[in-house]
Sequence to fold (785 residues):
Amino acid sequence: MSALRSRTAPIENLLGRSTLLRSLGLVIVVGVVLYVVSGQLGAYNQSQLAIGLYYFAVLAGLTMLIGSSGQVSLGHGALMAVGAYTVILLIGKEGWALLPALVAAVVVTTAVGIPMGIAASRLRGPYLAGATLAFAVGLPALANQFPVTFGGSNGLVINPPLPPSWLGATFSQEEWWAWICGLGALLVLFVVYNLSHSGLGRSLRAVRDDEIAASLCGLRVPRLQSLAFVISAACAGLAGGLFVVVLQLATPESFPLQLSLALLTGVVVGGLGSLWGAAFGAALLTLLPGWSNDLSSSLSLSQNVQGNLPFAIYGAVLIVVMLVWPSGISGGLRALAKAVSTTRRRDL
Amino acid sequence: MRSRRKRGALAVAAIATVITVAACGSSNNTNVAVPGVTATSITFGTHQPVTGPAAPGYSLIAPASQAYFDYVNAHGGVFGRKIYLTIKNDEYNPATTVTDVRQLVLQDHVFGIFEGLGTPTHEKVVGFLNSEKVPDMFIASGCPCWDAGTTQPYSFGWQPNYTIEGKVLGQYIAQHFAGQKIGVLYQDDDFGGGGLAGIKDEVPAKDLVSEQPYQSGTTSLATQVTALKASGAKVLVEFTVPIYTAIARLTSYTLGWNPQLVVSNVGIDPPTVSGLLAAVSKNKVSAAAGNALINGTITDGYLPSFSDSSNPWVTLFKGILTQYDKGAPWDGNTEYGIANAYTLVQALEAAGKNLTRQGLVNAVDNDGASWTGPGLVPFRYSTTVHGGYSGVQMAKVVDGGITAFGPVLVTQPTAGTPITAYTGTPATPTASGIPSN
Fold:
């Protein structure tokens, strides 16, 4: 609680005490940074940036769910699949435009999230994780049961979204994808920032810290928990839609159980409950697989070792971060900054 | 107050660092005229299931291709250029295939993609490779979808189209198991679907009593095998990757059902499948017993059988593998990798000294159908058709090896086209082991 306060303090000083103004300021600053950065990157890194941005969208919702409300979900990869299949079916088979399809992805995933959220509010700790795990395992397999609609294990593909002509002929499609994903990520940033700084956010944290005390204060615990789940599901749905923007495909194999697990590690390692943490987690999920692959292939090891080394590196990074910085990367950097500033003050 | 501001600044700096690091690595060799080609090198990239459900057996293919390139490189390369192959692990996950191939083309600036493995995976990058005009050579999949040379001018198949294979297997079944009940187990994608189409073209509909699909990634085939057994099928046709051939065999053995197996050549490499039978059964089935379980399985081939040690191609390739891919087993997978690499070297020679992406594609379009090599049949390359080998020869699994029998057969994938015997004489390798067009 106090940590969340102090982190937002610099922006608070600049823009006063209105949460809405502060969040708008944050969105504008991040938007400008993304705009400048996306123009500087090569095509491949632009598509990587877009991937990082949809990861941010799902992680921001998940970090609110786990960090603020204290509910652990292992099913968000499946919720991304719901959003992805919605977008690809509407664009590919119904001929919808991208924007309404993305809106529909959020609506459909929210609708799926409501019964899940109600069930989630009745389950605790490992039981909730288990129930959502079943969802992550079962839902993508559903696509195989209706191969005519969902394309079976071949999945579905659409043509890449092309940039509008007013951006000029040299504007790359990868940059356009990064822009779309950037807008989606900014929307999630705006919503989640405002929610977690509102009465709802405070209520959720009260529920997380002590459910009995919270209900004694008049908070309706199950309702709050369901709501948090539904909001994070909507974020995952949007992220799934953005996944289709970047990769133009939806197959059962693209939403494996490992994706749901990776999302959970992303928020934990990034830093639970903070939007910075979601950003670090997104960067980690986007960059670490490539880095560990490059590292293992540069070591000229046998093919068997090389193929499995990335998983070992991935695991080692997770263990080290958790040992050194139990509050995740964002918590670790905060501690580091604090240490630096106290040393400085002593020097003065 | 001051410390708060510093903290904010530090956070911004951290984000900037992350973004800068993300931006690194995009600026290597962009100034060359032809991407991936220098005076002394040609670089190809590939996506392979180094890990994941399709890895057993198939993970050996690309390193075997690298072994052949190393052999060619040690003998001076092609027009003085050494051939390099960058392998990316896509774990047979199409989403990873897409990012892997984008990285190879947009960031690593490879000359082309070679031997990209898998039907559901490679299908997702064909559009990208053709819009970027990147040669997509000799895809490691027999999907009928690679035939479309007009709409996908940069993509080329290599192994026989699964429908061609299905037709030849189907004709054999119709002739030798006439009137018997036939069941089919197939992977539920364009690999299994393509094979099934070929079977249906030849086997009378009344004999096909059960068609059971499975999803790649599943861990059990109990439902499918039980249904096939209940259908009373005496012959079981499988369009499966090796791991599912093994799981299906183990399941049917446990159920006490031992039908005559007819398996696509991609799913029955005996050393791979017997090794998998041992692994899947947690060594309850030894490798020797595994070989006994698949003995007599009917399949087909389009290369000399790896176990035919009297064949000069087998001698040559096995020697190269032993020298340049130490420790790799000699089996149908490593033979595949070397034979495919051999075809790529043929294509690079035909493309000439001034190598361009379009030049390589033109060389295959114009000359590919006349290339000879280890293959038993000619390729189907032309400007409009980009399918690979035009046929197969029937074969049987015998004591852990594969024995071919009967005539070499060629046909077209279109329904109703006749299956005819191919009478050309098999080619023999040059003394150097490097093709000379």
Q: What stands out?
A: The longest helix of chain B spans residues 2-23. Chain B has two domains: 41-160+306-390, 163-301. The two ends of chain B are 77 Å apart (CA to CA). Chain B is about 40% helix and 15% strand.
